[in-house]
Structures are given as structure tokens and as C-alpha cells.
Amino acid sequence: MKGGIMSMRFNLFPFLFAFAILFLSSPVLSDLILAKVDRRIDLTSQIVRTTTSLKVENTGSDLVSEILLSFPDNQANHLAYLKATLNEGKGKVKASSGGGLPVEVVHPKDAPPALAFYSVSLPKGLGKGDSVTLDVLAVFTYILEPFPEKITQADIQLLLFQESAHYLSLYAVKVQSLTVKLPDARIESYTKLENAKLQGSELKYGPYENLPPFSYLPIVIHFENNQPFAVAKELVREIEISHWGNVQITEHYNLIHAGAQSKGEFSRLDYQARPYVRGASAFRRLVAKLPPRAHSVYYRDEIGNISTSSLWGDSKKTELEIEPRYPMFGGWKTAFTIGYGLPLRDFLFGSDGKRFLNISFGAPINELVIDTLSVKVVLPEGSKDISVSVPFPVKQSQETKFSHLDVVGRPVVVLEKNNVVPEHNEHFQVYYKFNSLSMLREPSMLISGFFFLFVACIVYMHADLSISKSSASYLAKLQWEEVRATLQQVHNLISRCLTTHDKLEASLRDLSRTGDVQACKATRKSVDSSLKELSKELKSPVAFLQSSPQAAQILPKVEELIAKERDLQERLMAKHSTVVDCYEKKLGGREIENRIASHQQKITALRQEIDDLMDLIDEI
Known about the structure:
Layout: H1 2-10, H2 13-24, H3 27-30, E1 32-42, E2 48-58, E3 64-72, H4 73-76, E4 79-86, E5 103-106, E6 115-126, E7 131-140, E8 145-146, E9 150-151, E10 158-164, E11 172-181, E12 187-190, E13 196-199, E14 202-211, E15 218-224, E16 230-242, E17 246-257, E18 261-262, H5 268-273, E19 286-290, E20 295-300, E21 309-313, E22 318-322, E23 333-343, E24 348-351, E25 354-360, E26 369-378, E27 384-389, E28 395-401, E29 410-420, E30 427-433, H6 441-462, H7 472-514, H8 517-547, H9 555-584, H10 589-619
Parallel strand pairs: 1-11, 9-18, 16-26
Antiparallel strand pairs: 1-2, 2-7, 3-6, 4-7, 5-6, 8-10, 10-15, 11-14, 12-15, 13-14, 16-17, 17-23, 19-22, 20-23, 21-22, 24-25, 25-30, 26-29, 27-30, 28-29
Helix pairs in contact: 7-8, 7-9, 8-9, 9-10
């Protein structure tokens, strides 16, 4: 099947030659030739970088202001980054002040359908006999194909790369050569052509001379590459500016190993024993190059902090080495978050009455491919007149984020880009206006909040929040409190009466033990005196309850309680008199019990009724 795919791709290019005549008929294009082409392709990682040096000569009489670059569709669909610069030198057109020349996609008339064209604008027209040397950097993703596509834990990862030994161009080429840089590992196979030579980890094709436009010579390289194929399916990078001196960076990664898919079972024991044999295709760690003076660095996932990381740095750089919770084999996924703070003065500057943030766009992890990157720049609340300068096309939008003590929210600039590679890690600028007095808003809110809290506490402590003393409800409450206090007084007096009754009963028990009739009579006399005093004390609270409308419902129970107590008192006195009389007549114990049996039965019933009434008053 692999051979069939290759065959279809390679059979496409004879079809391109039919269109070459159309381009050669154009007076502008036919006047340009490539005097020398040196290509170098780097296959040492998952990202393929092609560096091409083009010496372009104008052999015609017309002035030429642009040069067209062409790529097959299978490469153009995976082109992540393209940059063209002038190579300064004696006799050459000098480079422009910017780092790269303007590059844009064009669709030339009658162009071959299987090619994509990019126009490079020259800073100065190329006249007759003039030449210029261009350095073109093209970065591709997903063009290295794992072959086989699925491997076991013990297998190495083999990749397939397809290219043309001839430089594909719509211009004629005088001399060209190709060098392919491979990893320091074995090469399974490669296309052997004339002038092809393998030297160490470099495979060289050429030189080839006098090539016509759209010349194509297919080559295939099958080689080992166990470098990390780390791909962030989604990366959200939040940059929050605080004018109090800090820039907080938070990066949320959804990572996958995009190399050959892992098949079969995974053995942790085998991996621990020989990780570079039983896990050669897996990657165990990644390195993130953070800006200098990064601080408060953390690395965690949904479970919590991940301790398998190390951080070191100096005045020029800070490096964070992170290790996932498990080795990453082909197709395996993980998600984690990296956060760190940066000094504000290193990244925020002022110009023409505006402030601007100057910070890098991409991710700090080495050789990471990002399918979808979202950079969110959170500006301070109150920022206005916001503008953005990015050195390459991005999708731009704005949203609002609310944080602590925010009123209208913080403006957020959202920049989105697909197929991001390390070459996109260039600086971009976010310009905005901000009134310095706005920095006092949050401290003022805190100070005001605490001030009003303390004032409220002072007012509460000194204010009389009780109900008006002249209102009917307040008077009714006071009257009810008096009724409750009086009921408590009655309860206490009845309790004392019951205690006195107990003394009378105790004197009878002492009489049965000692036979001392005189002592029993003395106790009786003392009890009579105490009960009379308690009876007098009860008259006042009972009179109050009788006169208070608030006690109308409870008064019958109080009167019943007093009546029961008096009845109990009379029964106890009668019992006491009977027992003393029997002892004076020297009657037997059985005779005494018979005489007081009726009294004792009534006393027991009365005590139970009094206890119930006392419990009722307690509940009130």
C-alpha cells in the first residue's frame, strides 16, 4: 500500500511538465534563472526544516520585483512557516531593515494544479544582469510518516520521508545540490542515485546541472528517529498583566505522542529495567526554556502538583525540565499546566503615550508542534485603545474576564493560530492606554470596604435597636416577663413547702427508730411555723397573678397547685398526729399502719398531682 501511495505521488509530476511551457512563454518568468541552489533538509526531529539558498539572476531586460517559490500540494498542506531573507554580500542587493521579506500566497495564471506558489517581494527591483541571493526557510509538520505505523514497546520508531533530489521550481536551474541531515541512528534504506553519497548522518545528492523548470527526481529515505514527537493538540496560553510589578503566565497543555502508534501491552517492569531498549520510541521528559528571572514556577495536572521536574537558570535563561507521570508512547495523551511569573519591567514599555507588552508568542517547550494555540493577553481593568502587532497572520478577537474586585471586567486580547512551530516563537506587541490613577481603584475599594465595615460595627454597638418602650407589644412583653418571674416565685415557694413536708416525714421515720416522741413533736411545731410563713409569702404572687390579664390562662393551674399543696399539708398533719398518738398509747406497728393507711394513699396521689402541676409551670 505504501508503494501505491508513493506511485500516485510521483506519477503526478509528469503532468506538471505540460504546464511548464506556459510559464516559459511568460517574458518575466523566463528571464529569471537560478544560478545556484543549495538545499539543506533537517530530519533530526519531528519538524522538517528546509533551508534553501537561491542565487537568482535576471537575464532579461525588464525589471523584476518578485520571485515565485513553488511547493507540491502534499508539502504546502503541511507548511507551518515560511521566511525569505536577503543574503547580504558584495555585489548583491542589500537586505531590508526588517528581518524577512514579504511573502504571500499567489495563484499564477495557468499554474499547474498540484503546486502551491508563494510570492517573495524584493525591496528593490532586479534589473538586467543583476543577481540576488535569497535564504528561504520552510518548516513542515506531519510530513514524516511512521513506517510501520504501529509498533510494540520494544520496537524502535522508523520514519519515511519523500522528496525530490531536484529543486522544484518554475525557473531553470544551473547548479543545485541537496544535503539531508539525519539523526545519529541507522538508516534502513534510501534512494541511490548518481552523485548520491552517505557521509555519517548526512546524505548528499548532487550537484546537478542545467535542470529545466519543474525538474523532479523522487527520493525516499527510511530511517530511525526516536526523538520526542510531542504535539499539543490544544494549548491555551494566558498572559495576565499586573501593573503592581508582575506578568503571570499560565499554559494549559493537551499533549499527545504523534509518532508510531503503540500496540500490545505495556510492561512497567521491562521499561524500568531497560528504558532505552524497552521504551526507545517513548519520551520521558520535555524541556521548557523560560525567560530569564522567571519565578514562582509550578507544574501540575488535574491530580495536583507533579514533583518530577527540575528548574535551573542564570541571568540569561531559565530552564524547566518536566517529566510526565508516565512515559509517553505513540498515541498516548496527557494534560498538564505550567505557570510562572515574570518581572513587569522586562516586558512592559511605554511609547507615544501608550503602554505596550512585548513578549514571545509560542510555547517555551523545545521542538513542540501545536495544532491549535490560543494566546490570551489579560490587560488591567480600565485599559482602552487596544491594538496588536503580530509578525505573522493570526485570528484576533476580544473578550472580558472578571477577577477579584473587578467592576466592568478586564479586557482580554485573544490571538489564535493553527499549526504552530518553534519558529513562531517571535515577539509580538499589545498596545493600550491606561490611566495610572486607575491603579488606586482596587486599594480604594478595599480601604472603603473596611472603613464602612468598622463604621457599621461602631453604629451597631452604640445604637439602641430595641422596640419602643411605649409600644403595646413592648408593654405586653414586659408584663409577660413579670408573669413568668412570678410563676417562678410560686414554683420556688411550693418547692420549699414540699421540702418542709419531707422534714415532717423524716421525723416519723426517726420516731419509729428511736421512739423519741418529744423530738417528733418539736419537729412538728417547727414545720407548722415554716408552713405558715410560706403561706404568707404565697399571698403576694398569687394576688399579682389574679390581677394580671397575661396570667389568665395559667392562673387556674396555679390555684389548683396551691389547693393541692394545702390538702397534702392537712393529710400529712393528720398522719403525723395519728402516729404520735399511737406511740403514746404504745400500740403495735401493725395497728399504726392500719390507722394511717387511708392517709398514706391520699398523700401519694396528691404528691403525684402536685409534681405534674409543677412540671407544667416549669414548661411555661
